[in-house]
């Protein structure tokens, strides 16, 4: 719930409010829930965003923006093939309702939180002791700091799983994420940072359009980096996570991030309370969690500090580095995903939900009834990606290693696919 302070009232406000509610959980993926990731969130993220998302006139712009170059041509075909499900009245109604609900929720967000005496909580006190022992933080200074930390109920509410039974809807999600405002902002970001993006592409092998896509989906290029104090949200979620089956794992995760935030602030010589981020503690234009800043952040403008709020170069280098460290392969220069048809036999179902990795050979996939309309690069492995479309037919794609690298940024197929589409649309917009 990071966006609202920057927005000007306009006809788009309801959609943007919906986005604020919808995108925030998504922007932090569910990676941490399964212990692999840098970003945080709940399994409900995609569900939430789909539920809250809106379908509008933006689909055309996506479609129209995919026409230049041979690779883009292939992409365009894929997108065209994929975007065949028409909007139904039921979908439109659901989306309109979600927008209204989202706006109401957004208006209720309390960024500042409330005073509680976290210092009196035994678990918090033990955590402070641990920080003293492990990292040499002065106990009294920590005590004073903890005394200033607020409980943020909004964060607790936002990590709660969505009610069950709402079908995910990729078309609605992508219409919300890949829309004219974001595409235009992406084009501007690309133009303003073309040299740096080219330098990152050379250094890391990650194309500019993927970096542009990620920063756009995360924060609309810095418009929505979050207005919660990171210490407030991380302490709240680390010690008062809502009752969910994975509560203990999530609290451990957020305590780890709180530890990282303290280290990050010390490393930079700043007041830890000055760190701002999303309701889940994600910071800066690329929404890195504190531990990710420490682990994967890159000082790409060589000024001696990793600054993901103010240095576009650091943002670009850090996103590229993150992807490379999570399986991005420079040599896989083709499409990140290929649209496929699946046979009625359902033999292919065994490939669904098998983790975030490309591990199936083409013959194996073919034999189970997965058919690509275009030739696949020989020797490459794939995973089967399902994009549910609410009441409409599910889309299926074969994801490459590089597709799955993006899912390590955020554990959602919708997320990865919208990153790809936004980057492509920005490129196309720039070319025209
Ligand atoms: Ca820097």
From TrEMBL:
GO BP terms, alphabetized: peptidoglycan catabolic process
Transferase found in the keyword field: no
Keyword entries, A-Z: Signal
GO MF annotations, alphabetized: peptidoglycan lytic transglycosylase activity
Signal peptide span: 1-32
Record-annotated Transglycosylase SLT domain positions: 122-423
Xref: Pfam families: SLT_2
Positions of the UniProt region annotated as Disordered: 37-90
InterPro entries: Lysozyme-like_dom_sf, Lytic_transglycosylase_MltB, MltB-like, SLT_2
Active site (record annotation): 218
Composition bias, Low complexity: 37-71
Taxonomy, superkingdom: Bacteria
Record field: compositional bias (Basic residues): 72-87
NCBIfam families: MltB
Name of the protein in its database record: Lytic murein transglycosylase B
Natural source organism: Massilia glaciei
Gene responsible for this protein: mltB
């Amino acid at each position: 719930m990071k966006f609202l302070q920057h927005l000007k009232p306009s006809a788009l406000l309801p959609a943007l409010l919906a986005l604020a509610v919808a995108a925030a959980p998504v922007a932090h993926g569910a990676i941490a829930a399964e212990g692999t990731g840098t970003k945080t969130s709940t399994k409900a993220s995609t569900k939430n965003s789909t539920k809250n998302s809106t379908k509008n006139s933006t689909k055309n712009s996506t479609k129209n923006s995919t026409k230049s170059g041979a690779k883009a041509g292939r992409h365009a075909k894929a997108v065209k093939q994929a975007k065949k499900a028409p909007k139904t009245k039921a979908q439109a109604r659901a989306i309109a309702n979600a927008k209204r609900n989202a706006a109401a929720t957004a208006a209720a967000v309390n960024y500042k939180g409330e005073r509680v005496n976290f210092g009196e909580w035994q678990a918090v006190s033990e955590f402070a002791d641990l920080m003293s022992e492990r990292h040499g933080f002065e106990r009294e200074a920590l005590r004073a700091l903890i005394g200033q930390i607020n409980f943020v109920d909004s964060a607790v509410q936002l990590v709660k799983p969505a009610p069950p039974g709402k079908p995910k809807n990729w078309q609605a999600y992508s219409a919300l994420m890949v829309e004219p405002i974001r595409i235009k902002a992406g084009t501007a970001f690309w133009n303003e940072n073309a040299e740096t993006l080219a330098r990152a592409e050379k250094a890391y092998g990650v194309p500019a359009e993927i970096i542009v896509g990620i920063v756009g989906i995360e924060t609309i290029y810095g418009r929505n980096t979050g207005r919660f104090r990171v210490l407030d949200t991380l302490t709240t979620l680390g010690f008062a996570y809502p009752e969910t089956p994975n509560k203990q794992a999530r609290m451990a995760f957020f305590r780890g991030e709180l530890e990282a935030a303290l280290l990050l602030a010390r490393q930079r010589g700043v007041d830890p309370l000055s760190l701002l981020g999303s309701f889940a503690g994600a910071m800066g234009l690329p929404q890195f969690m504190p531990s990710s800043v420490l682990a994967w952040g890159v000082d790409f403008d060589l000024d001696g500090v990793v600054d993901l709020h103010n240095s576009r170069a650091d943002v670009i280098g850090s996103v590229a580095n993150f992807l490379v460290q999570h399986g991005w392969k420079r040599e896989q220069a083709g499409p990140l995903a290929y649209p496929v048809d699946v046979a009625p036999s359902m033999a292919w179902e065994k490939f669904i939900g098998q983790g975030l990795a490309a591990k199936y050979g083409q013959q194996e996939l073919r034999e189970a009834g997965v058919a690509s309309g275009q030739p696949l690069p020989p020797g490459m492995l794939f995973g089967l990606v399902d994009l549910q479309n609410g009441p409409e037919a599910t889309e299926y794609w074969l994801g490459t290693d590089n597709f799955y690298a993006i899912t390590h940024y955020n554990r959602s197929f919708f997320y990865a696919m919208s990153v790809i589409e936004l980057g492509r649309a920005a490129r196309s917009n720039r070319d025209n």
